[in-house]
Write a structure and sequence with these properties.
The protein has 533 residues and is of the alpha+beta class. Helices cover 11% and strands 26% of the residues. Strand 26 and strand 27 form a beta hairpin. It holds the Pfam family PHAF1.
């Protein structure tokens, strides 16, 4: 965005129209603009949704800076900075939803509220000439938002500055004004004080969901967002789009319960749910890929644990761990000879679908592998769910695998899907393992669950050995899958070496298998992808 080019509408408690996907607010009434405001940065929008929109306008947003914790990216906030636009967007780590929008440089955007320019009436003082010029208190109080309750004064750090910060809050929006610390007193009239020469123009503005900044600050990243993850669906009726997926509940024996925003949970039963069932519950897929590649078929389980097969992972007869395809096509930014994209229109005729293909739901955060029915993984021993029955050899295509994408910052498939959250329910009284759990915790629990099913200590040891997966070779960082060194005895976990969070450009992750589950794990222990089969 060039400096002060297109007006940017402020929507307190909702968002900021920093992506001009609609006519200029000057040509619309505020009520009309409000109807399309959800095409911009709406609070509650997913990181995937916002980042995809920003990246699609490189001339408007030439600089993108993504900051996250390299050691714990799923619990700490993710910060998207747009320096050329003077904006900073904060997302929570577990769900990756937009929680706070900050304007840090008012000179970078022409902000508008109800067709009123935010910067009209801003002071010009020598003291503020070295900072971004923001609106003065009088303009905010008299022209923009009106009377307010007293705000919050934050004292300066000792010997750091002669100015403290006065935060003036309105429902859904707040302004930060520098205030001479020597002029501050609890008994002062804040209106008179901020109107005096002791106060400087605002240096920042925040948009959030809540009645005031002090009230919402402690629960900013934990409260339930009011708006959905996809800004495109806010203004539509519920019948016009597939309901938003909130979380996957993995019950075992090939059963998944999909928690949704508005509708009752949907059920997915591997080997039984058809492509038509998927479309009815989740809408048409964003893409369909035919799968030809079998580069890891050599590692598949071929029996019930016979000798001479050191890579076989079968704790007991009938519960062997199949190593399913991990190149899920949707991870590829470049389609190669092994993947053939199919028009989503093909789903109107089920007979036109190939025997094996992926339904890619990028905006839901998962893929579904469509194939002929197979027997899914076993039930968890303490779950109380009956073991799955053997699937008959029928010509009808069904869902045989579900791939849940973690969208972990620093991973190679980052921002291909929005983040998918899940819980593995091991028994009826257990809270379960979650998508935010470290793999060390997940592994320990699952090893305890399946300990009694191991035929020997050797089989238990084999289950603890990861396969190394490389996504870093090829024409793009996501265009190939290679295995390095087969199964390894140990794995080193630590911070990434590269400035972008990748380890030396190879992008190695590790695959760990349990009955019915396959985990792709980053070096920091975060689960990048979970395959349920």
């Amino acid at each position: 965005m060039t400096a002060r080019s297109a007006p940017v509408q402020i929507f307190p408690g909702k968002g900021l129209g920093f992506i001009s996907m609609f006519p200029s607010p000057k040509s619309l009434t505020y009520k009309a603009v409000d109807k399309v405001a959800n095409r911009c940065a709406a609070l509650g929008a997913s990181l995937h949704n916002v980042l995809t929109r920003v990246k699609s306008h490189p001339q408007t947003y030439p600089e993108i800076d993504l900051a996250y914790s390299s050691t714990d990216p799923l619990r700490n906030p993710v910060i998207l900075k747009l320096p050329a636009n003077g904006l900073r967007l904060r997302f929570d780590g577990p769900d990756q939803r937009l929680r706070l929008i900050e304007v840090l440089d008012f000179s970078r955007s022409s902000l508008v509220y109800k067709n009123q320019d935010v910067l009209k009436g801003a002071k010009s003082t020598e003291a503020s000439s070295t900072t971004s010029q923001g609106p003065g208190f009088r303009h905010v109080y008299n022209r923009l938002f009106g009377p307010s309750y007293p705000g919050e004064y934050i004292e300066p750090a000792e010997n750091q500055s002669q100015y403290g910060t006065y935060v003036l809050s309105y429902p859904g929006v707040s302004f930060s004004f520098p205030l001479q610390h020597s002029a501050w007193s609890d008994s002062c009239d804040f209106v008179a004080l901020l109107s005096s020469s002791a106060a400087l123009p605002a240096t920042s503005m925040a948009i959030f969901q809540g009645s005031s900044w002090p009230e919402v600050r402690a629960k900013l990243f934990t409260q339930q967002p009011q708006y959905p993850r996809s800004s495109a669906v806010v203004s539509k009726t519920r019948d016009a789009f597939a309901d938003e997926v909130e979380e996957f509940h993995i019950l075992g024996a090939g059963r998944l319960e999909v928690e949704r925003r508005n509708n009752p949970p949907a059920q997915i039963i591997l080997g039984e749910t058809t492509p038509q069932d998927m479309i009815a519950e989740f809408g048409p897929p964003d893409a369909i890929y035919r799968k030809h590649d079998r580069r890891i078929s050599i590692h598949r389980a071929t029996g019930s644990g016979g000798t001479g097969d050191p890579l076989h992972m079968s704790p007991s007869p009938g519960t062997g761990i199949e190593i399913p395809d991990t190149d899920h096509s949707s991870n590829n930014s470049v389609t190669d000879d092994s993947d053939e994209e199919i028009s989503p229109n093909s789903i109107s005729d089920p007979t036109s679908l190939p025997a094996e293909c992926f339904f890619n739901y990028f905006h839901h955060g998962f893929d579904a592998f469509i194939s002929y029915p197979t027997t899914p993984g076993p039930a968890f021993p303490q779950s109380g769910i009956p073991e799955p029955s053997s699937q008959p050899s029928l010509p009808q295509l069904t869902v045989t695998k579900i791939i849940l994408h973690g969208n972990v910052p620093g991973s190679y498939p980052f921002n291909r899907h929005r983040r998918s959250r899940w819980t593995i329910h091991l028994d009826q009284s257990d809270d379960g393992l979650t998508s935010e759990s470290s793999y060390d915790d997940i592994s320990k629990r699952l090893h305890d669950v399946w300990k009694g099913s191991n035929a020997s200590p050797e089989e238990q040891r084999v289950m603890q050995r990861p396969m190394v997966l490389n996504r870093g070779w090829g024409d793009s960082p996501e265009s190939s899958v290679e295995f390095l060194g087969g199964w390894e005895e140990t794995t080193a976990r630590g911070q990434r070496n590269g400035p972008d969070g990748h380890d030396g450009g190879l992008g190695n992750t590790e695959l760990f298998g349990f009955p019915g589950l396959l985990f792709e794990v980053l070096k920091n222990g975060a689960v990048s992808c979970l395959t349920v089969y």
